[in-house]
Amino acid sequence: MKSLKRYQYEKYAVLCNLAYPRVFKQTRYGFDPNGQRIVANRYGKTVVRILWSKDKEEAVIVIKGSHSLTDWLLTFAMWQRHCKAFGLNYRIHAGFHYILNQESQPTHKKDRLGISLFERTIEIASALIESGKRVTITGHSSGGAIGCVIADALEQKYPKSIKRIVTFGQPAIGNHSFKRRFRLAHKTYRVCCDLDVVTFLPPLPLLYWHVGKVLWLYNGRIYENTPTLVRLGRSLVSWIIRPFSYHLMSKYIRNKDFFDER
Length: 262
What we know:
This is Lipase. This protein is of the alpha/beta class. The protein has one domain (6-258): Alpha/Beta hydrolase fold, catalytic domain (Rossmann fold, 3-Layer(aba) Sandwich), CATH 3.40.50. It contains eight helices and ten strands. It has helices spanning 6-18, 69-74, 94-101, 117-130, 142-157, 176-181, 228-245, 249-254, and strands at residues 36-40, 46-51, 58-63, 80-83, 90-93, 134-140, 162-168, 188-193, 213-218, 221-224. A hairpin with a 5-residue loop joins β1 and β2. The chain is globular, with a radius of gyration of 20 Å.
């Protein structure tokens, strides 16, 4: 697996962050004036942004994480449902299954009623792939989880069409069959930041599995492929000792910038 470059990390992190505001001006980030399609959920709220430029090979699918009370409640639907769309055959988190398979409200003149968020995303991405694009998928939280499933479906339909997957703060997705059958582990980077508790969800060992290469940003370093139990252990220790760390002189020295130059 190739490493994730700093500029790539910054690019996808910025896009994930900017996916949340209602308005996103894609031309500010190098995409064409007509190089954006939005995929909405059942309420007409944006969940997926698909971005591209005619003169660039890469199209980018950016997926929001949970951004409403309903979405957060769905993350607690920890039972599993069979995902069989687009040739897939494994069980995934019931909440993510629901997000993917909810009816998508039209946002474009080409959109039609009666198809799911999953189907509409695949439909738009398929047209870009058939025009010669390769696709990168990035998402935050549950957006990263459903992004992996969308990427797997596209790879099933169009082999070698996926350039990379980069997720931020992503929970685990599905059962061991999902882990075994997922085609893109060698192109998937799962970024975890410090003590992000969502990356340990669902808390059901052996029932839920992660995929890809984990990049753990912790104590000013990047740790690669740190096992989940080791991450959890270090996180618990950090939570316990953190109040005492503020007593260290290094903390006082680091905060010198609070004082004016005199």
